[in-house]
Request: fold
Amino acid sequence: MTIKAAETAPTRTALRRVVAGPPGLPYLGNLPQFGKDPLAFFEQLRNRGDLVHWRFGRTTCLFVADPECIGELLSEVEHTFDQPDLGVAFRTLLGNGVVVAKGKDWRRKRSLVQPSVRPKQVRSYAATMVQCAVDLADRWSDGQRIDVKREMSALTQRIAVRTIFGVDTAADAEAIGRAMEVAQHEIGVEFSGLGALLPDWVPTPGRARIKKATAVIDAEVGRVVARHRAGETGRSDLLSRLLAAQDESGARLSDREIRDETVTLYIGGHETTSSTLVWAWHLLARNPRVREALGEELDRVLGDREPGYDDYARLSYTQAVVKETLRLYPTIWLLTGVAKPGATLGGRTIPPGTRIWTSQWATHRDARWFRDPLEFRPERWARDAEEIPEYAWFPFGGGPRACLGTRFALVEAVLILAVLGRRFDLAVDPGDLTPVPGLTLQAAGEVLASVRGRR
Reply:
């Protein structure tokens, strides 16, 4: 299940042509088109070319669709490309965590956070992932009607609260979960609307709501951090590891830094997996052949037992289902950077200050890199299947700033799918699901289904 460089992929010596994007409006540029439907807008830009000019308000932007240029962008972040300011709503929620920090500050924080999510540590969290999924499966019954979105969200919330914070009470999960839902929605609204052009000091109803939601999150995190410092928890959780981490000078993360990193890890460990599982159940219900192949692997590898961490490597088709789900419905649907002096893409010099955008949604659905790109076909990830260029699939980003929680999210999704899929089918109600691009890509509204027992 590796990504291979296709023989037909363009070489680095090829000079990419920059083409003009759709006409924009004075001051607003292409913001109205982007705000109306960001996913369709990025597909429109992709269809124009590999490097496309457009304007976000009065900011000059360049959209990148070619995997090799995407690789250049992601690999050169912190060198010839910089992290952009993603707006007051984004900063209100994430603060200055490892996703937002730059330069020396980013390198320090990454060195302190990364040990908490290495494979050895993810192995220690696998039992919690499985147990929480088993608890949910024990509550399901044949013929039961459920909201898949609500069930997956509650499940991954519980896993995140237990593995990150070391607590396991409904109040903790519900308070943080409700606040996070509000914050994520408001970030999406501001990012793609007129709020993106307003100065930070301008008050808006959306900014007031995200401040209120963030205050709830801060209070919950602060309370749990205080319990850890008082020695009231004995779990081997992510927060305990962050509190104990020291940089080269022996300094630890401050309380504010602890808050920023735990919120970042919570989003990575809860929001991404929850959304991926919702889309996976939707796709499996629409593709009986794939569902049958998944069930066959789960029966063959697991039999009548629950999965463990070591089964992750054995469940290759289950991994492929997750990977193909992330191709069609990438939780992180766009990445952006700012050109610094000396920046180049596709052999062309990029003027400093140019805002660079790329979209997993658009590239993952490009027929040049994926045959029948709208088909749900996990087999395309089998060894020696399709030739897929590197960075044609990048749901977790790439380069030095690739998502630290990639392993956690993939293991979590596979193990949950294995626990629930071994026992049940979910007959998701007919109809299309509308993807809503916010901080992450979510399905709009309820996702109703009937539970069907397999055994």
About this structure: The first strand starts at residue 18 and ends at 20. Residues 5-13 have pLDDT under 50 and may be disordered. The first helix runs from residue 31 to 36.
